[in-house]
Amino acid sequence: MTRTVVCQLSPLPDGPVTVAGWVETVRDQKKVQFVILRDETGAVQLVNPATRDLEDGATAEQQAAAELTETIGALAHGTMVRVTGELKHDGRVKLGGLEVKVGTLEVVSEAIAETPIAEDSSLDKRLDWRFLDLRRPEANLLFRVQTTFEHALRSWWVERDYIEVHTPKLMASASESHAELFEMEYFETKAYLAQSPQFFKQMAQPAGFGKVFEIAPAFRADPSFTSRHATEFTSIDAEISWIDSHEDVMQMHEEALVAAFTAVVEKHGAAIEAAFEVSLSVPSLPFPRIPLAEARQIVADGGYAIPRTDGDLDPEGERRLSAWVKANHGHDFVFVTDYATGIRPFYHMRREGDGSITNSYDLLYNGTEISTGAQREHRVDVLVEQAREKGIEPEELEFYLDFFRYGVPPHGGFGMGLARVLMLMLGLGSIRETTYLFRGPTRLLP
User: Fold this and answer.
1) What ranges do the domains of the chain cover?
2) pLDDT of residue 176
3) Any idea what DSSP says for residue 440?
4) Collapsing DSSP states into helix, strand and coil, what is residue 240?
5) Residue 281's pLDDT is what?
6) Bridge partner list, 232
């Protein structure tokens, strides 16, 4: 008999069914046994009339029933079982209004009785046993949300004739900052793990691809232990040609996000509210836009002095600005624009008529920065000059600068951290929760 997953049981009529999954709980009562069986789609109650204390001369059927009772009574949490029985719809059953009366039960894989983590275990402890931690329904839902979110973004781009690229993660030189590079031996030379696909998604513009996107790993040798940093993360990137300014990038960015949030709300909105107590809604268009200087003034007027000396917002400043936007615009997102040249990379285009400002933005969501985007500088002589200003010798960038020597359209794009978006979407405290297997300065296992 074909296995039926739990989410497919409700529409079925009463009758024979086979289910399989792991044991969540066992209630072994004198006359009846109840087992909560969970699989990748949900949980169902199994019921078995207990047969105990057989007298001499018991029939084979009675002996089989007693063996089943003994087997169920010994089941440990996490044991994988396959059960064939009779499905019955019963509104009195609190778990889904149905149950399966056990006919046969096969122990496929026994679990050790004492589990190493519990509901109150610390996050670090749970990460040590991530394969068990992920059995939680909330974790299962989280990664279904991630799947829907990514699929919706990808669909939005594909439907608009974007090309998906897969850029290399081994690089001969830095894409942004040498300080955050992982260096490794590479045959007779050195290689670096890519911090972002920045150079390579730009390469697609002189290649004539026009519009590209990528969802892939990126690596940062950042010894940070904050709730929003990782040494390996999934970066969502897009780059488009023939733009007039970073406004074109922001418009693409917000429209893609609205499509992704729409898909998540439609498919998972009720489940998210039940599991995470978050009432998720689709953000309205357009997202608010606030120049950085104005954003800093808003934060200052609110009584907070940003301690950073480079002119950027710090995390507390981001939270306060987002709170102001929520109160005054009713929006969870805000584009902070017009960043100063000194706090942006050399390849960001500077404002015509004001070289102190770049055509760039950060996108904040629920109080935290999730993305940086910009119009790129496409004039090779300007790029060389700006690289030198940042202390980068053009000789280190020859392969990159070649992209601009044979004709390149005006272009721009963004990079966005997937785990951060999910963390903020679901109201969780750390990207460790929203990363399948987290990697940080002190974590390489499991």
Assistant:
1) 6-109, 127-425
2) 64
3) B
4) strand
5) 97
6) 219
Instruction: Give the containing element (helix H, strand E) for 140.
Output: helix 137-159
Give the tokens for residue 302: 């609110």
Contacts of residue 215, Cβ cutoff 8 Å, sequence gap at least 6: 150, 153, 154, 234, 235, 236, 237, 418
Per-residue tokens: 234: 């999934």
Question: Mind listing the pLDDT tens digit for each residue in 88-117?
Answer: 999 999 999 999 999 999 999 999 999 999
Q: What 8-state DSSP symbol labels residue 312? A: P
Helices (H) and strands (E) in the chain, counts: 11, 18
Nearest to 430 by CA among 224, 249, 236, 162: 224
Digit-coded pLDDT (tens) for 47-84: 999 998 888 888 999 999 999 999 999 999 999 999 99
Contacts (Cβ under 8 Å, ≥6 apart) of 272 = 141, 145, 264, 278, 280, 426
Looking at domain 127-425, does it have CATH number 3.50.50.60? no
Omega before 286 cis (within 30°)?
A: yes
Half-sphere exposure of 62 (CA within 13 A, CB side): 8
DSSP-based three-state secondary structure for 25: strand
- DSSP-derived secondary structure letter, 396: G
Beta carbons within 8 Å of 387's beta carbon, 6+ residues apart: 346, 393, 394, 397
The whole-number pLDDT of residue 71 equals 97
Q: Is the pTM of this model over 0.85?
A: yes
Q: Which residues of the chain have pLDDT under 50?
A: none
- Cα dist from 404 to 110, 172, 181, 363, whole Å: 61, 19, 25, 28
CA angle (414 as vertex; 412, 420 as ends), nearest 5: 175
HEC readout, 360-385: EEEEEECCEEEEEEEEECCCHHHHHH
Q: Which CATH architecture has domain 6-109?
A: Beta Barrel (2.40)
* Residues forming beta bridges with residue 105, ordered by sequence position: 83
Question: Could you tell me if 81 and 23 are in contact, meaning their C-beta atoms sit under 8 angstroms apart?
Answer: yes
